[in-house]
Amino acid sequence: MSYARVLCVGLVGVAGRLVEVEADLSPGLPAVVLTGLPDAALQQARDRVRAAVVNSGCEWPPGRITVNLLPAALPKHGSGFDLAIAAALLTGAGALPAGPLDGVVLLGELGLDGTVRPVRGVLPMVAAAAQAGITRVIVPLPNAREATVVPGVTVRAVDSLRRLVGFVRGDDRLLDPPPESPAPAVTGPDLADVAGQQFGRYALEIAAAGGHHLALLGPPGAGKTMLAERLPSILPVLDDEAALEVTALQSIAGVLPPGSGLIRRPPYQAPHHSSSMAALIGGGSGLARPGALSLAHRGVLFLDEAPEIPRTTLQALRQPLESGRVVLARARGTTEYPARAQLVLAANPCPCATTDQRCTCSPQVRRRYIGRLSGPLLDRVDIRIDLLPMRSAQLMTAGGPAESSMAVAARVLRARVAAVHRWAARGDWRINADVPGPQLRQPPWLLPARDTVALRTALDRGTVSARGFDRVLRLAWTIADLDGRDRPGGDDVAEALQLRTGNAGPAPMAAARRPHLTAGRSDRPLPEADSSPLASLPAGDPVPGHGIPPLAGSPPSPPVGEDPSPTGATSLFADESVVRR
Ligand SMILES: [Zn+2]
User: Rounded to the nearest whole angstrom, what is the distance from the C-alpha of residue 382 to the centroid of ligand 1?
Assistant: First the structure.
């Protein structure tokens, strides 16, 4: 026999395709030709496979060897085809009997000594094989655990080419996947470590409950990073579908710990502000790799010192945040990665990054600094809050340990369950942040006109954009969910509006309704509402001549039935085309 065929899987992004590895041996001058759109790493498979075959005690077949990877149009990259290539050409040369490897997918990289090395992306590859009807796979031993999470597939492992050869000849056994190592106890950062910052904790809880993006502004030491790091600890554990996606992405990026099964905790990514666009969004030469945004899929992407991040990089985040996926076009093909991450931005109020007392930056400098956060990106952030520096009174009056992540997570879960039940009737949205704006402005979710007076006024004045209008509505639903109310009322909408427009200190409405948020602050008057640099930002959609007029205090509630906004606001409900999305 001079021809053989073995199955393997190629990956483009998270999508896998079954690849047939053909080997043909013909008389002629000794040569190995590799065809079928291989990349540089795959081209080098010729040398790796030759050394591995010889060092495994097999004879290298004489003559001309042609290895072809089908389908030829699919770009193939990496070293995961080595094992399949070796098996195909040994079978083609007659050194191995044909048959035992029929219908089996082989994955693995070969070392020169014939050891089988782990490869990236085994989980999505095995999932793709299962989808194509394959029921048996052979993978490198370190990848065996992750391969077993795919249902309906029998996974066996190899540690060397010698073992595979022995198995096919019938005188050796394949290895069983190692047992799952007991899940490590959750020892991540806990909210109990955060003293004071009641308002920051409250904002974090709302963000977690509704899946809202969050911006934290405050001087160094105010606890921005501490809070952001603890957001995953109050998010619900990942369901099966999300866990598979997250584990697959980590497998592709090569950051999945060896021997680990499904990842159940929401991931957390905090790239440095000097990270390149490729590191943040995804990219690189050849076929693009996932970036921090995709590695934070179903979890949290924390961008500290956000104004220091180049504007073009921040702008590049906008579209993926909206669509939940990153599409990267390269010469060798287009790659797509999921990117449904919850964004937390943090910023110092000024470039000198010191405490308020020592800062000498002028208001213009401070405004320009925060202005580096692009308006359109910030327009997609639902909650923008100022964290005030901690005072001794707060630390001392905090009294006892702060509430733990577990307690907060229980409330978050309750709110999320309420949202799932509500939206299940109309669509498959699971969190409030996913609900399309038009749905919120239609019965049965349309709120009574008296409850949205302040919001409609803000839209007419240009203090919130049309996109912001919908985001405030979503936020109001989340506040109601957390408080256990069926529907948001006027106070919920007003509170959401204040959380959205970035007042300094606790939003007045939230503080008035929740006295514990201002506990320990009696030594210090609340700052003027318009002192927040966030409040001076444009409202996102370009509205010439409009800064955000501060919303001091809670908006006056007009008598029921009276509508203070003369025109425009009502037309938003009548004509959805007004809302440019
Ligand atoms: Zn300063």
Answer: 26
From the list 474, 249, 413, the residue with the least C-alpha distance to 341 is 249
pLDDT band at 398 (very low <50, low <70, confident <90, very high): low
Q: Residue 311: which of 282, 269, 280, 339 has the closest Cα? A: 280
Residue 378 Cα to ligand 1 midpoint, Å, equals 22
Mean pLDDT of the chain: 82
Specify the pLDDT at position 363: 85
* CATH class of the domain comprising 3-169: alpha beta
- Look at residue 519 in the predicted model and tell me its pLDDT: 60
CA separation for the pair 19, 10 (Å, rounded): 6
Note whether 18 and 132 are within 8 A (CB).
yes
13 Rama sector, left if φ>0, alpha if ψ -120 to 50, beta otherwise: left
Query: If you write DSSP's letter for every residue of 443-484 in order, what string do you get?
Result: TTTPPPGGGGHHHHHHHHHTSS-HHHHHHHHHHHHHHHHHHT
Q: Using one digit for the tens of pLDDT, what is the confidence trace for 40-88?
A: 878 888 899 999 999 999 999 988 999 999 898 888 888 899 999 999 9
Q: How far is the CA of 537 from the centre of ligand 1 (A)?
A: 18
**Amino acid 13: pLDDT:** 84
Strand partners for 301: 269, 343
Provide the β-strand partners of residue 33.
Answer: 66
Q: How far is CA 403 from CA 174, 207, 221, 342, 477, in A?
A: 51, 17, 20, 23, 24
C-alpha of residue 245 to centroid of ligand 1, in Å: 42
Q: Answer yes or no: are the C-beta atoms of 114 and 145 closer than 8 Å.
A: no
Q: How far is the CA of 376 from the centre of ligand 1 (A)?
A: 25
pTM here is 0.81
Question: Which tokens hold the place of 21?
Answer: 């590895």
Residue 505 zone, left/alpha/beta (φ > 0; ψ -120 to 50; rest): left
In terms of C-beta density within 10 A (0-12 exposed, 13-18 middle, 19 or more buried), how is residue 182 classed? exposed
Query: What's the 534 CA to ligand 1 centre distance in angstroms?
Result: 15
Q: Higher-confidence residue: 395 or 343?
A: 343
Q: How far apart are CA 90 and CA 58, in angstroms?
A: 8
Instruction: Say how many Å lie between the CA of residue 358 and the centre of ligand 1.
Output: 8
pLDDT at 221 over 60: yes
Each domain of the chain, given as residue ranges in start order, spans 3-169, 214-379, 388-581
**Ion ligand 1 — residues with CB under 5 Å?**
350, 352, 359, 361
Domain 214-379, CATH: 3.40.50.300
Ligand 1 centroid to residue 362 C-alpha, Å: 8
Can you read off the two tokens belonging to residue 316?
Answer: 């590049």
